[in-house]
Every structure is written in structure tokens, then in C-alpha cells.
Amino acid sequence: xxxxxxxxxxxxxxxxxxxxxxxxxxxxxxxxxxxxxxxxxxxxxxxxxxxxxxxxxxxxxxxxxxxxxxxxxxxxxxxxxxxxxxxxxxxxxxxxxxxxxxxxxxxxxxxxxxxxxxxxxxxxxxxxxxxxxxxxxxxxxxxxxxxxxxxxxxxxxxxxxxxxxxxxxxxxxxxxxxxxxxxxxxxxxxxxxxxxxxxxxxxxxxxxxxxxxxxxxxxxxxxxxxxxxxxxxxxxxxxxxxxxxxxxxxxxxxxxxxxxxxxxxxxxxxxxxxxxxxxxxxxxxxxxxxxxxxxxxxxxxxxxxxxxxxxxxxxxxxxxxxxxxxxxxxxxxxxxxxxxxxxxxxxxxxxxxxxxxxxxxxxxxxxxxxxxxxxxxxxxxxxxxxxxxxxxxxxxxxx
Length: 399
What we know:
CATH class of the largest domain: Alpha Beta
Number of domains: 2
Largest sheet: 18 strands, mixed
Structural class: alpha+beta
Radius of gyration: 24 Å
């Protein structure tokens, strides 16, 4: 079997040659599913060279049809020969067949080249964020548990930091770990190398609360949505590429953002040992600090999905924002199994509902930039996704 993809503006024309039977059905589905994952959602199958179609092949067409329907995509089959037409008609799937191309289908003009990687949407050009910073922990000192504070995470709140959902005073000391909160969807990871994240989702009037020792919390509304997609010229986007686009769009020094994207490679670290076991006095030796953190030794979680929240600034004027490439930024990312996002303008709450309804988080990481001179693995990068962003106009540092 030969499968050939040609893009024509919003449509993807896929030519199929050979036999689509049990021997080739999985290859066919996996190939087309990868096309869908990278953003080809309006698919036209050209079946003029399709010689045979079995029940296994029909099943793959139906699976593709259902997946595209769930993300507002479309599918049709053109140029089916008499045999393929009869097979689909007698099995009740002739609704997939079309006798002509869509009216707005436009053949490619090979003289026109485009390298538009970003698609911009204005959500509310007056929207902005305020940020409050609570920092009662200095790395790498044992936390002072008398300085814990309770924070509520409602639907207008975006937050990251170190805390725990446990309110048992005897268990809090060993439970403090990284957390991420986006519109009341909360992900928390215990400080253990083999732990997987726990999570809390909004239910009716329930508002999750955490005991925290350190937090960066934004409240407000996102002003812009930017979609990014690769092509043959640019196969992936570093976190700096995406932040550059957001900063240029917003024209502001400091901004907050949420990203949902397919992962090319994550570069990060996470706590693997309770901060309560830190020795008295400040710990600065790298050999000691490494006992508490797991750094990824290579770019990890390729072909998974990432959900990130962060604050970034081009100026060094906000606490808790370490240097990441040209930005001062603090970013937490949760890793999920791969999902497919619809194209175009999408609502963040719909993405969150889909993520948590069909899958669960696998890991929670603090993103870093590996700048070692030797064996550097660089920074986190993505293939395709979306960033919601807004300027930060007010900053409050709480004691």
C-alpha cells in the first residue's frame, strides 16, 4: 500500500494505492492518525488507485471518521471505483462517498510559499492578569512549617508552587511537593521518585484548597490565543520560540500563559525526597541537592501531551523567576498521554475537560534549561499546540 499526502489550504488530500485489507489496515490507520495529530483535520481520500477494501479497512475508515468528528473535522472518499462503491454501499457506509470535491477546495499554487507557523486569535484585548507571590521557603533550607498558608484555587485562578492537599498536620511535613492549578483543575505530586500525580477537578461548588509554602498565583483572563503548527521548514518549537511569539504579540515585559501541546522533548526536574529531611542550615552542595531532585538526563516524553502554566518576563524584577534562555520564567508542566486538539480557535476549559475526562496525568515537572557546555540537552520543545496568554499588570508580594 502507498499513502501520499498533499495539503490544499485547509484540506488534506490523501491518495491511497493498493489493497486496504487486514494486512495493511493498521499501517493505514497509524499513518492517517499521525496526519490528524499534526493538524490535518479536513481529509479527502482519493481512492482512484484503491484496488480492494475489506471489513478491516472499512473499520479503519470508521475509526478515522469518529476521531475527526470529535474534533470538528471531516472526511470523504472521492474517485471510488465500482467495487469500492459497492462495498461501502452494501455495508451501509456510503455516506463516506462523495462524487465531487468540496466547493471551497483550492489546488495548491506551487509558486506561493508560506512559512506561517503561528495563527493568532484575540480573545479579549482588554484582558489582563494580576500576580501574587508567596515565598516562605528559601532553597535549600528545611521549610518552616509555621509559615504554611492555605490557598483556594477557583476557576479564575492559575497557580504553581510547592504545597500539598493534606491538612493533617502530622503528614504535611513529608507531603510538600510540586503542584499546578489551572481553572480549578489541580495536579499535585508527592516528593517521591516513583510517584505519579494526584489530581482534583472542579465539581459543582467544590473549590480545591492547598497548604503551600511557595506559590505564584495569577488571577484574571487571557487576552490572546496563539496556535502553532510545524511544517517542513520548522519541525518543532522550543519554549523560547513560543514565548517570543507571545511576548511580541502582547508587547509587554511580563505575561502569564497556559500551553497545551504535543511534546517533542521535555527538559525538567521534580522533587524525589521530602524537603522536611533537609539538614539544618543551608544546603548548597550539588551532591546534596541532587538527593532531592530528579533531573531528566535526556529529552523525555516525546509523543505525549503537555499542559503547562507559567509566568515569564524579559526583566529580572519578579521573585521566583529563574533564567530560562532569554526569559526569566517559572513553569510547571504536567505530562499526559497524547490527545488530538481541534484546529482553529479553541476554549481552554474545553481542552481541560477533554484531558481529564479521557486520560490522567503521568508526571509533573518543573521546566529547566540545560545550558551545560558538554552534553547539553537544551530546552523543552513541542510540535503542535496552543498558548493562551495575557499581560501581567499588577504584582503583589505577600509575606
